[in-house]
Write a sequence for this structure.
């Protein structure tokens, strides 16, 4: 499988991993609010891993896509997922530093994570695979 079909498949997998990572990140943030740092760190680590996998799939999409709109959407998704991956890693470090009583280091990690979370907002919403197919169908219809 190559070209657009491979790109669409990779995007779908990347999107699924991305959504799971977003859920894990939200859950871990809520766990921090509850003061459960060790549990939160596990959630941040899982989120970082899934964000990393989504970045790999979105990168494959960019490489395989024959369609400029698919490439553009996947590139934006890749950049957003990268920011969130970095934030999850900083937040994991924050929880570890907090557990070790290193409040200054924990604050710095949290600040770094907040910067990455803010940067992620610049890339808007990651389009679902269904939205991707709808935009591809619209382009085909407008070309005919």
């Amino acid at each position: 499988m190559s070209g657009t079909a491979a790109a669409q498949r990779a995007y779908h997998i990347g999107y699924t991993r991305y959504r799971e990572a977003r859920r894990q990140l939200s859950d871990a943030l809520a766990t921090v609010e509850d003061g459960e740092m060790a549990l939160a760190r596990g959630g941040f680590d899982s989120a970082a891993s899934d964000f990393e996998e989504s970045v790999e799939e979105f990168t494959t999409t960019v490489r395989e896509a024959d369609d400029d709109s698919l490439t553009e959407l996947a590139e934006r998704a890749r950049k957003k997922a990268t920011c969130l991956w970095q934030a999850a890693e900083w937040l994991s470090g924050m929880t570890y530093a907090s557990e070790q009583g290193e409040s200054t280091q924990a604050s710095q990690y949290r600040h770094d994570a907040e910067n990455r979370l803010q940067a992620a907002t610049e890339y808007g919403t990651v389009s679902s695979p269904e939205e991707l197919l709808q935009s591809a169908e619209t382009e085909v219809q407008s070309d005919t």
In short: Residues 3-131 form one domain. DSSP finds five helices and no strands in the chain.
